[in-house]
Design brief:
Helix content: under 10%
Oligomer: single chain
Structural class: mainly beta
Largest sheet: 7 strands, mixed
Shape: globular
Length: 122
Amino acid sequence: VQLQACGGGWVQTGGSLRLSCAFSGRTFSNYGMGWFRQAPGKEREFVAHISWGGGSTLYADSVRGRFTISRDNAKNTVYLQMNSLKTEDTAVYYCAARTGGRPDEESNYVFWGQGTLVTVSS
């Protein structure tokens, strides 16, 4: 299985970015998909999750209302639209695939992408 994340970059505070994560090697629609992030000097944390069919989403409190997770099962891709970015959103963002368990616990994710860096500055 491969998860290839892209779309990171530099943006000013208040700006937007859209991350994409392409999934291959298994049946994409069998997996719930999540985004996590790790800021410099901090532990990796949950950002958002979307169920296998896209009908259910979950967000961390810190991003709810600013970030939107979506997926296109025909394209085997999950997205993270990030709006109103803040400096504290600066991190390496990882996409991951899970088959069960709590969606906000990284131990329940079986496949991980390589990460894409998002830098937000004022």
